[in-house]
Each structure stands twice: as C-alpha cells, then as structure tokens.
C-alpha cells in the first residue's frame, strides 16, 4: 500500500496503542506460566509472531474482540516445536524466543523474513553455547536461520551490552525457569537500558525476581510465572505516542491542541520524547495521573539528543529536526543501524529526497533544519514501521504532496496509525 498525504493541520484526541515492548514480554511470560490473562495487548504483526511461538511451544493463545488474550502456557517447559518458528519481521520475537527454545529438550529452528535474517544474533548464540546449549546459525554468520538444541540448565555467562538489550531480556526470562538460574556479566556498557527495566518490571508483575548485580544482572532458577490475580494489563506505548505528539508540535491548528490518551508513566525510556518535544519549544502538558498529554504547536528549535537508551525515537526526532530552526544532532546512534533497516541512513536519505540537509556519521545524525525546506516527494518506507510513520509526519508540513511507498508496514506496531491521522484532520489517500 502507498499513502499520499496532503499538508494538513491537526487537532483532536488520539489514543496510544498498547506498548509493543510490554506486549511481547507479557505474551511470552504468560507462555512461561501455567495460564494467564493479558489485557490491553497490542495485536500487531510483531506480537502475533510471539503468540505463534508460544503456541508452537505447546501453549494456546485465545484473543477476544476487546484485545484480551487468554493464554494457556507451557508452564516453564516448552515442547519441541512441530514446525519451524517463523518470527517474520520481529527481532524481539526472535531473540526472546531463541532463549525460550533453549529450554526445550530437543531441536528448534527459527527463521524470519529477509530483513530479520540480516540482523545480528551472534552474541546470544555464543552466550547460549557457553551455557551448554547447541546454538548455531545455519550460515555461520551469526544470523538466522538459527538451530537451537537444549535443554538449558543455567549458569554464569558473559555477554556484550552494546549490541542489543534484547539478549539480556531473553536470558533473564528463560533463566527464571532453569534449574540453576542465570547470572549475566556485561562485557560492555549496556545500551537501551530502559528496555531491560521494562523486562524487570514485567517479570516482577509475573512474580519473578530478577535483579541487577555489580557486573550485570541475575535471576534465580526454579521460579514460576504467575501474575497477581492471574491477569496482567499492558500500558500505552511511548514509541507510538511520539507520532501524535510530534504531529501536534509541528502541525497543530492555530489555537488548537492534540490530546493523547493512554500515557500513564512506566519504565519506558521512550517517554523521554515528552521532554524532547518540550525542549524544542512546543507547549506540552503531561497529566501523569490522568495519563493524558496535551500538545500545541510553536516554532521549534534544534537540540542535541542522545538516543543511547531510546533508539526507536531517532526517526521521530529526525523529522522534528527537519521542521525546527537550526541543527538537531542525534548522538550515540550506531545501534539504531541494526533495526528493521539502518534507520540512521534511511532517515538521512529519505528526508534528503524531501529537501532536508543532513550530516550522517557512524554514530550520529545531524539534521540541518535551518538550511532545509521540506518539499513533498515520493519516499520509501523501507519496510520499516518507524520510518513510515516519521515520514508521514514530515508530509504534514511539506510543500506539496508526499507519497510513502510500502506504508502498510505500520501494522508491525501501530495498525491504526493512518486512521488516527485522519481522525486528527489529516488529508490522505491510500492506494493498493
């Protein structure tokens, strides 16, 4: 699907979808349990991949119309899957499920689409091998397809912290149901640390104790997953909140606001987008108790933003920088290159098609907003939901029409994204 946007002013109320990060963890945690109910779950292409994996491990996921998931888990002992686990485009699924597969007494094969088969899994495979599991890349390059043969008993292992925090999450979640538990010693500084905080929060909500140590993280073995009252509720997603928030900051109608609901505080590092937008000059009011954010437009100025802990915000910040006066410099961004696509280069190149001047370095991206004039153009969504949504924001204020190719990939995390824009007053056209 291609989507063409016409410059528009926005106003009204938007509701954040549930958090993708929390939903992944909650579905798998419920799988590790005997049974559990997950409320307010995001049902997207990525989270459905995790649900399919739980079912292949012997669990059952039953979705109701209100978004509630009733999950009969595999009670800490996954079966050997009867089929290959296809993680589609979901890197979170592959990493979390790879460690779960190591618990099975037999062999599991995992694969994904072309993009996912290019993403690094080597450090996780090496850690599992050090823990006594046969963990191989079929092509010997540390990338999927992966072949995992367990069972995993636990132990102590070293792992880098600067490639993906999902490795740590995967091992902590699996380690709770091993005999020995798992102790993780970080070889390098941890990047995307708030995502591990999310994991610790979800584990605690499911009755599992995992904790930090002087050198990393640890989780005792022999634990059971069981949320209080048998239920867990997924909070709103701040990665997704960044889009209506930015839309209000750059395109709110005069004397109008965009209100975002579902913005209760949580461990999500991406809640930093509220402060970033405010620092750039927008008028932002976050009622944390009510979980609402009101934002209205104002002239924006460039800022410097470190995305070491918030890599998913880079596309949104890049678009804000394209509208702002002066330079917006995004630093500590090298790990953002290893997402669904190289998001640093993708944003530089696609915004460049729209007349935006950028300077790209290996670990940073600078957007020269003051030297740029946003012009409508045909751009590629790069099969990446966050690139698509960020470019759509640019289309709200570009001079002329903006067409985004491959826009259907928003289904990965925000299936109702374009419908939300229309409800806020955006003029757009979908073409098959």
From TrEMBL:
InterPro entries in the cross-refs: Enolpyruvate_Tfrase_dom, Enolpyruvate_Tfrase_sf, EPSP_synthase, EPSP_synthase_CS, RNA3'P_cycl/enolpyr_Trfase_a/b
Residues annotated for 3-phosphoshikimate binding in this entry: 20-21, 25, 164-166, 192, 312, 339
Domain Enolpyruvate transferase: 7-420
Biological process according to GO: amino acid biosynthetic process; aromatic amino acid family biosynthetic process; chorismate biosynthetic process
Keyword annotations: Amino-acid biosynthesis, Aromatic amino acid biosynthesis, Cytoplasm, Transferase
Group of enzyme by EC: transferase
GO terms of molecular function: 3-phosphoshikimate 1-carboxyvinyltransferase activity
Active-site positions on this chain: 312
Reaction catalysed by this enzyme: 3-phosphoshikimate + phosphoenolpyruvate = 5-O-(1-carboxyvinyl)-3-phosphoshikimate + phosphate
Quaternary structure and partners: Monomer.
Protein name: 3-phosphoshikimate 1-carboxyvinyltransferase
């Amino acid at each position: 699907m291609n989507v063409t946007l016409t410059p528009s002013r926005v106003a009204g109320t938007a509701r954040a979808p549930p958090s993708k990060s929390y939903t992944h963890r909650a579905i798998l945690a419920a799988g590790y349990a005997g049974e559990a109910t997950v409320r307010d779950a995001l049902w997207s292409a990525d989270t459905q991949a995790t649900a399919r994996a739980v079912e292949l491990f012997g669990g059952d996921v039953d979705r109701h119309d209100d978004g509630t998931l009733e999950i009969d888990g595999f009670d800490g002992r996954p079966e050997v899957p009867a089929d290959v686990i296809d993680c589609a485009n979901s890197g979170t699924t592959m990493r979390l499920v790879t460690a779960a597969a190591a618990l099975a007494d037999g062999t599991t094969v995992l694969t994904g689409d072309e993009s996912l088969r290019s993403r690094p899994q080597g450090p996780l495979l090496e850690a599992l091998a050090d823990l006594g599991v046969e963990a191989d890349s079929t092509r010997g390059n540390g990338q999927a397809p992966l072949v995992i043969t367990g069972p995993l008993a636990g132990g102590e292992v070293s792992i880098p912290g600067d490639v993906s925090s999902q490795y740590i999450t995967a091992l902590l979640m699996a380690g709770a149901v091993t005999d020995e538990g798992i102790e993780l010693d970080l070889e390098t500084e941890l990047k995307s640390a708030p995502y591990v905080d999310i994991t610790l929060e979800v584990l605690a909500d499911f009755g599992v104790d995992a904790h930090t140590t002087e050198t990393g993280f640890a989780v005792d073995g022999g634990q059971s997953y069981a949320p209080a009252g048998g239920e867990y509720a997924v909070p709103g997603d701040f990665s997704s909140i960044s889009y209506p928030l930015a839309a209000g900051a750059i395109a709110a109608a005069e004397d109008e606001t965009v209100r975002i609901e579902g913005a209760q505080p949580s461990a999500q590092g991406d809640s930093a987008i509220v402060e970033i937008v405010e620092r750039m000059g927008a008028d932002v009011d976050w009622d944390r108790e009510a979980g609402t954010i009101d934002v209205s437009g104002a002239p924006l100025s460039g800022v410097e933003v470190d995305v070491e802990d918030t890599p998913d915000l880079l596309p949104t910040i890049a678009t804000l920088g394209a509208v702002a006066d002066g330079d917006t410099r995004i630093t500590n961004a090298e790990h953002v290159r290893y997402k669904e696509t190289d998001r640093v280069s993708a944003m530089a190149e696609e915004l460049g098609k729209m007349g935006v001047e950028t300077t790209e370095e290996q670990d940073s991206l600078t957007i020269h907003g003051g030297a740029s004039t946003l012009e409508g153009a045909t751009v590629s969504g790069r099969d990446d939901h966050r690139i698509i949504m960020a470019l759509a924001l640019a289309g709200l204020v570009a001079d002329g029409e903006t067409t985004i190719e491959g826009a259907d990939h928003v289904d990965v995390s925000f299936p109702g994204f374009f419908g939300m824009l229309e409800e806020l007053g955006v003029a757009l056209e979908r073409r098959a």
